[in-house]
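Dear Dr. H.,

I hope your travels went smoothly. While you were away I took the liberty of generating a structure for the chain from your last submission, since the lab meeting agenda had it listed for discussion. I wanted you to have the full record in hand beforehand rather than looking at slides cold. The sequence, exactly as received, is reproduced here:
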Amino acid sequence: MKQVNFLFDFNRTNMHMPTPRLADILEILIIAFLVYHILAWAKTTRLWSFLKGIVVIIAFILMAELLHMSTILWIVERVFGIAVIAMVVILQPELRKALEELGRKNIFSNVLSLGDSRIAGRFSDNTLNEIVRACVEMAKERTGALIVIEQNHPLTEYERTGIDVDAVVTSQLLINIFQHNTPLHDGAVIVRGDRITAATCYLPLSDNRRIGKELGTRHRAGVGVSEATDSLTIIVSEETGKISVAYGGELERALDSDRLRERLRVLQNRHEEEAPIKYFARKAKVKK
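The corresponding predicted structure, in token form, is as follows:
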């Protein structure tokens, strides 16, 4: 009898649901808001790929737990602390950038504008034509050029290494910037949307051994920034006068005006994030 009463009291206690307070609802909304915007911000950085890797690792650990793989779980327990420290070290540039944006109070405006295609780096037909015209003219004159077109991944860290320009993209301006013996000709130009944001910018060099020895620093810089971001880089060779395009770590060489316009059009009208990468990779392999 006592056991029956105990079970009755236990069930009655568990059936009683606590009444949610206004503070509880507000707390849930705040947490959901923060998680959503943190993920939205992470999608524009290298942190997004890192998070996908973490999801795979977590799924592997859960499988090991379900199958009672004690040795793997023992190893995970021992390396967990080291993994957290390593994560902080690896993501140090991204965390620093996030804190800087928060300090400038621009983080919320940046997050809320992620869905705007104009801010996401799309460029107009006029900008496309001006870039193609400038590259063809510079190729004829064998004027070296390095033009980086920003997409979703912000290039702010590279802009800071150069000089602010903030001007509408025109072929005349691009040609003047890369003319020999001018103050802005050395380094890369960064294009965001329909504007040139900065010139003389320094880019990371690729250590890809598949890049031919005959290619110099300009080509390695173009491939390097395409490996670190989702930007497209146009390289005009000073030695050969040939136009190359770097995207997703792939380099396609010796493009004419029609093919360059086609590559830019693919990037301009993209509908899926991975589509341009597969397209340029396929073209680069054919070219090789």
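Two observations you may find useful: Residues 20-112 form one domain. DSSP finds twelve helices and seven strands in the chain.

With kind regards,
E. W.
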